[in-house]
Amino acid sequence: MGWDERVAALFRRNLQPTLTYWSVFFSFGLCIAFLGPTLLDLRCQTQSSLSRITWVFFSQQFCLLLGSCLGGVFKRRLAQSLVALFASSLAISVVFAIIPLCHNVVVLAVVMAVAGLAMGCIDTISNMQLVKIYQKDSAVFLQVRQMSASLKGTTENKPLGVCPLFQALHFFVGFGLPMEGLVVTRVSYAFWIMALINLPVPIAVFFLLYKERLVPCFNNGSRPLLSTDELAMETQPAEKDDHSITSQRDRGHNDLFSCCQSKNFRGAPYSYFAVHVAGALVLFMSDGIIGEYSGFIYSYAVEEPLSVVHKVAGYLPSLFWGFITLGRLISIPVSYRMKPATMVSINVVGVLITFLLLLTFSYSVVFLFVGTACLGLFLSSTFPSMLAYTEDILQYKGCATTVLVTGAGIGEMVLQLLVGSIIHDQGSYSFLVCGTIFGGLAFTFYTFLLFFHRMYPKPSSELTWPPSNGAEVSNCNSK
C-alpha cells in the first residue's frame, strides 16, 4: 500500500479521532505494564504470599478477555464508542490512584479486574474504529496503534525495574518493603504519578466527544467531525431506504455474543466461519507465544544447562520487548509497501525457524540472546497485520475484530498457564519444545487461512456474505 494523496487526505480529515484512538492505547500499555515491575511491592503492601498475589494477574487477564468480548457492544453508535473509551481510560487513572490504598489481595484483585475490563474495551473499540475509518488502508494505522501499546511488555513476573518508566520512578521514589503492620511503600507515589501521566488520555477522548457535540452541556460547538459510520457509507452507493442503511452499519463488527447468534449465519458460506476461526487461532498462538516466552525466558535461562547469571538473564525479557518495540516501529513504513498477508507470512515462518534454531543451539547462551531478539522482531507486527488481512478478506462485514482480539487474549492467558505447568512437570527444556509446537501450529493455521481465503466469495460474487443489500440481516434484526 502506497502513501498516496487519497490516504493522506483521509488521514488529515480524521486526524483528531485517529490520534485519539492511538492515544488510548497508551493507557492500555501503561496499565498492563506496571504489574510485573511492582509485584514485590504489591506483595508486601498486601502482606500476601507470592502464590496469592499471582491471582491478581489472573483477575486482570480474565477480565481483559471479558472486556474484549463486550467491547463490541458499543460499536453501533459513535457516541457509545467514545463514551466507553472515555470511561475506560479514566478508569485506568482511577485504578492507579486506588492501588496504593489496597492492603488486601482480594481488594487488589477486584480493582485490577476493573482495570482489565477497561483495557479490553479499549482494545476492541479502538481497533474497530480504526478499521472502520481506513478499511483497506488500515494496516499502517493499526501498526502505529500497536506501537502505542509497547509498554505492554512488562506484565509478567520479571525482576523489578524491567520497565524503563517504572525503573525511573522507582529510582525517584525509592524502595520500601516492610512486611509487618499497615504497609505504605514509597512506590505508592509511583502509582499516583502514573495516574497523573495517564490523565491527558481521557481528556483527549472528552475533547473528541465535545467536537462531536456529544456532551449534553456543550452541544453548541462547531460542526461535528465525520463519524466513522458516515465515512464508511461515503464510499457506498446511496440508499433510499433508511432501514437498509441502518442494517448496513450494524451487520459487521458486532460483539462476540451477537456474532454467535444463528440469525447472523443464515446463507453464509462455510468459508465465512473458517476465516474467523483460522484468524483467531493464528493470533491465539502468536500472542500466546509472546506471553509464555516473555514470562518464562528468564526462568529458562537461569536453569541448567545454560545456568545464566541472574543479572544477565534479567536482560532477556527487556531484549525481547525492546525488539518487539523496534519491530513495530519498522513495520510502520514497511506496511506502506507490503501487503498484510505477506507480512504475516514472514512473521509466522520466521517464528517457526527461530524456535527450531533455538532448539538446535540450545546450549548456546549467545544464540539465546540472538534468537530472543529475532523472535521479538517476527512477533512484533503479527497482530495488526493479521487483523488488517482478515478484515480485508471479509470485506469489513464480518466479526473479525472482536473474534481476533478475543482469540489473542485467550491465547495470551491460556498458553502461559499451560507452559508453566509443563515446565514444572517436565523441566526447563520443555520451554523451547512448547514454543516450537506453538510456532508450528501458528504456521499451520495460517496455511488454512490462506486456503479459506481462496475459497471465500469475491466481492463481485452473488454469494458474498453478508448480502449486499442488507435485507436479510435487516429482517433478522427486526424480529
UniProtKB/TrEMBL annotation:
Keyword rRNA processing belongs to the record: no
Q: Which regions span the lipid bilayer?
A: 21-40, 52-74, 81-99, 105-126, 160-177, 189-210, 272-300, 312-330, 342-361, 367-389, 401-423, 429-452
Q: Chief localization class?
A: membrane
Spell out the SUPFAM superfamilies in the cross-references.
Answer: MFS general substrate transporter
Keyword annotations for this protein, in alphabetical order, are: Membrane, Transmembrane, Transmembrane helix
Q: Where in the cell is it found?
A: Membrane
Its family remark reads: Belongs to the major facilitator superfamily.
Q: What is this protein called?
A: Major facilitator superfamily domain containing 4A
**Organism this protein belongs to:** Pelusios castaneus (West African mud turtle)
